[in-house]
Design goal:
Two copies of one chain form a homodimer. By secondary structure, the first copy, chain A, is α/β, with parallel strands linked by helices. Chain A is built from 14 helices and eleven strands. At the A-B interface, helix 2, helix 3, strand 3, helix 4 and helix 5 of A face helix 2, helix 3, strand 3, helix 4 and helix 5 of B.
């Protein structure tokens, strides 16, 4: 895969997302439509210019009885008869959609490509949502025996604490930081700040993970439009270049992993993404990582190569991951505070990086002079990972 | 999309499918594994040679609680850490997967690519299966008001009968022909022949469609392996060339169509597929069409351009669609008799064309000297269509 053929460079010419949250008044079509129209208007193009549509969605069937999501979004955005499809890789569906759209433009197959992500999760009861999300793990070997995602990540957290001396206080600091960033993000699901004491005294979900260690169930959508770099300036003064986008896979079930404190899919994808992008980790100004649980943010920092295994938690503990710190992480509040509409999250992360690199986010959470950003999207407990590196044009 | 960039020609180097049917002893992983291992062995490659995996699956969540199907299949075929994903476009998921795999090789992104399709449908009650399948239509505007797929296609059949003078007897002839072909196919779900009287006197499902006008609910999987044509002969003496593969979309709900007797997505995809392939319809020796209901086979013959609108039924009535006739249609028995494991069907159709072009199917249903074949896969009532044209190398 190193040496992946690329005919030309690709740029993001527009990027938009809905607010995340409990959208009782909006269905899956409304959410996709809202993000889509915002992105099309921002690009100043007509729907007719779009040649191909890829939509990330994890479980439209389980959440709202609706599959066939690619054609559905094409239909409601008025894009028929262009080719459209849904891609799925659990919570990495959005990242996969971006990878697919990027490949389609990079290879020269299409010029103008729309990449969306959408999930409507709050129409079902909590228990049904948990069942739907269990579809991301090995259902027969994990979910069937009672495992839930908080339980799976709690296993990873416990082992990591045992191996490397992580304390619950540090996980709480991750949540406090993400709520702080989210408080400044007008599209975030949660905009309340929390303090360390609140985080530590919250009800337990799966020991050692409490309520504030877990991301919420959110409705939301995001959409970005891609074009070859050579024509991108026709549409925008600030094209954002896709330096690389790489996917990798791993076993679905934890029991087959060599080490449950490492997401090998992230390690593999990140290594290749940096090589293809010709960028060093020291050049990266901010990262969006897949913090479905606080422990996942710690693991991501390490698996992406920003800290040695067993030492990522120190960056969190020393608060280097705030905007203004050495490596701002999840400047939109991450999955924890900005929300996690599962199939949309990977695209929503890209939207945040684009807005940051353009200098367009709210004061207080804007990373000054950001030139390079990285998005990291994970499916399940790490069976899929997508790493995308973006830079100012 | 005409002028779709192609760096190089692509060939299918191996193709395999499981038997379709009610596989009480096999889960979704077992089915995918069986098709995958057969295809890998036929190609004489090692799993390590495969660089990319695309899997078509419509509704793993609704049928067996399992999403994340791309990584799951990669996991159980031992392909980690290669990039893997599931694609979905309802019953066209398999065709979409093929299109994606074809693009990946044609553009030069990858050399050896596996394209699979799998569906395990019989673990749920009939009513749950109907609900799951309703996810292929516009759930809010159709399924919510009680529409089912037999009902939707019955509307199309009634209108077509009114407009063009089609009789129930002709639809019955489609079923009789597909059961006849299926009787000679060792992998078919149904291997019983039926006669016209049996077809006409079968219980009504949705007037005018009776039991034999409807395809069954099947478990099954299929997998093909693609390579650049220039290296294909390393793996096989009979590479099958992908002349073109094209997707198109349309509205999900019938109520927004200009004409419910035409699948515009099929018309659009077919027109482009023939142009890109530089092949005339008269050169095509056999076609696999998406006969989820008998009326769909009639519409497909017309929308693909093998008959004028309103006249396709005459070819069926005159029995020109048998092996040995002017245009053999569904030589494996079609969805009707060979089975319809929804997400796998599009790949299974490709497998049939490959075996026919290689001269490898059972006597009696082998199209002699076949040089060119076409596969036509539809999602829902036509919101997605994929047309693929294959030829002997």
């Amino acid at each position: 895969m190193i040496g992946l053929y690329k005919k030309r460079d690709v740029a993001i010419i527009s990027a938009a997302a809905t607010k995340c949250g409990e959208h009782w008044d909006k269905g899956i079509k409304d959410l996709a439509w809202e993000a889509g129209v915002k992105a099309v208007e921002e690009a100043g193009i007509s729907g007719k210019d779009i040649e191909y549509l890829v939509v990330g969605n994890m479980s439209g069937g389980m959440f709202v009885g609706q599959e066939h999501i690619g054609a559905l979004v094409a239909d409601f955005l008025g894009l028929n008869p262009i080719p459209s499809l849904r891609v799925e890789g659990a919570c990495a569906s959005g990242g996969i959609a971006f990878f697919q759209g990027y490949m389609a433009v990079a290879s020269g197959l299409y010029d103008i490509v729309a990449v969306g992500g959408v999930e409507k999760m709050t129409d079902v009861e909590q228990e049904q949502a948990t069942t739907a999300l269990s579809g991301a793990m090995d259902f027969e070997w994990e979910a069937y025996f009672g495992a839930t995602f908080p339980g799976i990540y709690a296993l990873m957290a416990r082992r990591y604490m045992y191996e490397y001396g992580l304390k619950k206080e540090t996980l709480a600091k991750v949540a406090v930081k993400n709520h702080y960033h989210g408080s400044m993000n007008s599209l975030a699901h949660f905009r309340n700040k929390i303090n360390l004491e609140e985080a530590l005294s919250a009800p337990m979900v799966a020991d050692p993970l409490g309520k504030y260690d877990c991301c919420p169930i959110s409705d939301g959508a995001a959409l970005v439009i891609l074009a070859p770099l050579e024509i991108a300036r026709k549409y925008t003064d600030t094209p954002i270049i896709v330096k690389s986008s790489v996917m990798a896979s791993d076993t679905l079930s934890l029991l087959k992993r060599r080490d449950i404190c490492t997401l090998d899919a992230t390690v593999n994808a990140a290594e290749k993404a940096f090589k293809l992008a010709h960028i060093e980790r020291s050049q990266v100004n901010l990262i969006e990582v897949h913090d479905c649980f606080t422990i996942a943010e710690v693991l991501a920092i390490e698996d992406l190569g920003f800290a040695k295994k067993g030492e990522g938690w120190k960056m969190c503990d020393e608060e280097q991951t705030y905007v203004g710190g050495n490596l701002p992480v999840n400047t939109d509040g991450g999955l924890k505070a900005s929300g996690h509409p599962v199939g949309a999250t990977g695209v929503k992360q890209i939207v945040e990086i684009v807005k940051q690199l353009r200098g367009e986010v709210e004061r207080g959470r804007q990373v000054k002079g950001a030139e390079v950003g990285l998005a990291h999207n994970v499916g399940g407990s790490g069976a899929t990972a997508v790493v995308t590196i973006l830079a100012r044009g």
